[in-house]
């Protein structure tokens, strides 16, 4: 295996005085006799390079590597930093990582204790977007307030062996925002140098303004200046008052600005005053404040007659009004015509005609499927007001909409769509629209008149399973039998998608936030934004890896081969989440327990199951039943997909465990043919579509629903 070279970029600190110091040739920056620059870098007071030139020891600048005009330096720093008393600016800096097999972490404990980072992955340079640090080839994240130090760590999943030809190294650094522009060339050979500028927030002392003003001798803000409390740590900063410019830390450093040199200030006469100015109307017969941005200087009208100038002005004004109205009407008409053509373009571009053809093949479903206009959904969401947002995800935003008749729906406004996959998208919509399963969120219709299609779903009222498991205000509502019922319904929905749908569907993002609950706590699987249809003659698909960390099938992650067993793995994580009440991935837990699936399997292998189960489940549930569900979850989490059960087998086993609760006599003879028939036969009929029993599944031939909604709302 090739050795990966991890290059952590060295840092050059850019000390920034967060105050209004105007650098002009006429105004001094430093004290008399003190250096005011080092190379091309200005050094304004209160900073200084030797005794007597700085306000206190904290502002002493000592450096052996002043930068020349080419930006060169003879000194490099290590990939860590401990600031003296000045915090690292959280508004001016970003933590950036570069690489296609890179996981970068930055952490610190002085000032604010924190740990954060980002992940950057890609399979080839074709996936990379120039200038974008969104996680493909390059990623970035913000730094918290009050940070005084940092340590940077960089990890690689495959030691860059899969991307070695175009990305042999990972890079991570802290830099001033907008000073680095990502380029694909940086993946192969980062030419940004070993130094990047970083901004520190400096402040005077550790007192706020009101406390500092009490000590006249040590107060740093000189005449004609104002004091501001530091917004990133203790201390204060100074700035020249309005109407003054210069260095507020120097005696007489803030000098008056002569506003009268600006010809756009006064109409006639301008008189400069300390810190301000005065305008006046000198010519006789004129009145006003004399300011261009005020009432200017207007001619005083003679009493008893309408001045000629006013009559001319009125005529010109009326003509202009008529002209503006005419142009506005013409512009509005052209804009409406352009808008109609644009809607027609988007409708065709988004496959509207193809969708109409597909829907026309399902005569019984046309009434239940509606193609909405853009105006209808704009009105339903109150022009997409922020207070109508139900949730936001990586693929779009979901809004609450109210249709005529007070019917509440969820409207998904996606971010992007790949035009090369429009036909596939329409085929998926057409097939998903024929699914009418009681445990799958229904699609009511769509709008194709916008640049990105809008999708309309049924509104599920009781939030996500994630909120009910992990929020304390819902802890008493989800007892064990209710959790088991949710698991049974979710498994049934996935089994239906894998086995009973006209074309098998792999969900690809099963997690607790994508399982919604209605008022009766009935589970509904949502978010088919990452789903894929499986052709009848295929058992697997090769795709770009998508999913959620903590739920992602490890075999799929390594091979990019998507199968139905990938959903089985994610469902296994969901089962463990129901059993333990823990999140699938949490950095608040010890390192060996962060990944819930791995922690669970390890605990099972060490016979420590009951140590990690939710105490509420142990108090309420049947120990034997809990153990059976745990064993089933362990089988679902097998590393090799071929060793996992199918979703049909999972659903049947959960149905059997649920039947044990309702019919205790089943426990006595689990292997009898009669028991197997009672537990298996009804479910087989449901999955294979043999019967029309409404207790199994709702008809898929009389209704149309689609489920590709982020977070399912």
UniProtKB/TrEMBL annotation:
Keyword Transmembrane helix listed: yes
Domain Protein kinase: start-end pairs: 384-666
Principal subcellular localisation of the protein: membrane
InterPro entries, sorted: EGF (IPR000742), EGF-like_Ca-bd_dom (IPR001881), EGF-type_Asp/Asn_hydroxyl_site (IPR000152), EGF_Ca-bd_CS (IPR018097), Kinase-like_dom_sf (IPR011009), Prot_kinase_dom (IPR000719), Ser-Thr/Tyr_kinase_cat_dom (IPR001245), Ser/Thr_kinase_AS (IPR008271)
Gene3D superfamilies: Laminin, Phosphorylase Kinase, domain 1, Transferase(Phosphotransferase) domain 1
Domain EGF-like stretches: 205-255
Claim: rRNA-binding is one of the keywords in the record: no
Any Pfam family matching the protein: PK_Tyr_Ser-Thr
Full protein name: Uncharacterized protein
Originating organism: Quercus lobata
């Amino acid at each position: 295996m090739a050795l990966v070279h991890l290059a952590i970029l060295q840092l050059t600190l850019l000390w920034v005085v967060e105050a209004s110091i105007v650098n002009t040739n006429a105004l001094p920056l430093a004290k008399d006799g003190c250096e005011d620059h080092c190379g091309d870098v200005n050094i304004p007071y209160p900073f200084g390079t030797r005794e007597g030139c700085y306000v206190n020891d904290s502002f002493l600048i000592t450096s052996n590597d002043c930068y020349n005009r080419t930006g060169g330096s003879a000194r490099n720093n290590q990939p860590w930093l401990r600031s003296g008393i000045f915090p690292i600016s959280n508004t001016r800096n970003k933590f950036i990582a570069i690489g296609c097999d890179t996981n970068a972490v930055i952490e610190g404990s002085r000032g604010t204790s924190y740990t954060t980072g980002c992940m950057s992955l890609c399979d080839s340079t074709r996936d990379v977007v120039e200038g974008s640090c969104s996680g493909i080839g390059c990623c970035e994240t913000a730094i918290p307030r009050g940070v005084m130090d940092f340590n940077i760590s960089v990890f690689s999943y495959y030691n860059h062996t899969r991307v070695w030809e175009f990305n042999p190294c990972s890079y991570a650094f802290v830099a001033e925002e907008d000073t680095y522009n990502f380029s694909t060339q940086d993946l192969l050979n980062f030419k940004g140098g070993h130094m990047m500028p970083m901004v520190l927030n400096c402040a005077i002392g550790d007192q706020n303004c009101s406390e500092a003003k009490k000590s006249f001798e040590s107060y740093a803000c000189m005449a004609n200046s104002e004091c501001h409390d530091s917004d990133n740590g203790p201390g204060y900063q100074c700035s020249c008052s309005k109407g003054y410019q210069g260095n507020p830390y120097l005696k007489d450093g803030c000098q008056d600005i002569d506003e009268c040199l600006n010809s756009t200030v006064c109409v006639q006469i301008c008189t400069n005053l300390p810190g301000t100015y005065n305008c006046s109307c000198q010519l006789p017969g004129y009145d006003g404040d004399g300011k261009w941005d005020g009432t200017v200087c207007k001619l005083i009208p003679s009493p008893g007659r309408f001045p000629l100038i006013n009559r001319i002005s009125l005529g010109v004004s009326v003509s202009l009004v008529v002209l503006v109205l005419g142009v506005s009407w013409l512009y509005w008409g052209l804009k409406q015509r352009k808008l109609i053509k644009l809607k027609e373009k988007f409708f065709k571009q988004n496959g509207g005609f193809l969708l109409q053809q597909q829907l026309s093949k399902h005569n019984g479903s046309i009434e239940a499927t509606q193609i909405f206009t853009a105006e209808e959904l704009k009105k339903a969401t109150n022009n997409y007001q922020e207070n109508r947002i139900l949730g936001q995800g990586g693929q779009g935003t979901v809004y609450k909409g109210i249709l005529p008749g007070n019917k509440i729906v969820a409207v998904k406004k996606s971010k992007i769509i790949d035009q090369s996959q429009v036909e596939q998208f329409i085929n998926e919509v057409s097939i998903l629209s024929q699914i009418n399963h009681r445990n799958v969120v229904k699609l009511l219709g769509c709008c194709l008149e916008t640049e990105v299609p809008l999708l309309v779903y049924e509104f599920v009222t009781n939030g996500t399973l994630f909120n009910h498991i992990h929020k304390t205000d819902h802890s008493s509502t989800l007892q064990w039998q209710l959790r088991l019922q949710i698991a049974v319904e979710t498994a049934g929905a996935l089994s239906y998608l894998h086995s009973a749908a006209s074309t098998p569907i792999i969900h690809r993002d099963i997690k607790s936030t994508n399982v919604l609950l209605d008022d009766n706590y009935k589970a509904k699987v949502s978010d088919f934004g990452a789903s894929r249809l499986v052709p009848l003659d295929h058992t697997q698909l090769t795709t770009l890896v998508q999913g959620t960390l903590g739920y992602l099938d490890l075999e799929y992650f390594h091979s990019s081969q998507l199968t139905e067993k990938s959903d089985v793995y994610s469902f296994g994580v969901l089962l463990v989440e129901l059993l333990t009440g823990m999140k699938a991935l949490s950095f608040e837990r010890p390192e060996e327990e962060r990944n819930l699936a791995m922690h669970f399997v390890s605990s099972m292998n060490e016979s420590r199951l009951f140590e990690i189960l939710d105490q509420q489940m142990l108090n309420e549930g049947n120990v034997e039943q809990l153990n059976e569900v745990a064993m089933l979850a362990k089988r679902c989490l097998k590393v090799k997909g071929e060793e996992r059960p199918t979703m049909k087998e999972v659903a049947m086993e959960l149905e059997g465990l649920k039947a044990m609760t309702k019919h205790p006599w089943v426990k006595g003879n689990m292997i009898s043919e009669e028991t197997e028939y009672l537990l298996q036969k009804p479910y087989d009929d449901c999955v294979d579509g043999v019967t029309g029993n409404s207790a199994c599944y709702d008809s898929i031939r009389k209704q149309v629903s689609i489920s590709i909604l982020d977070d399912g709302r």
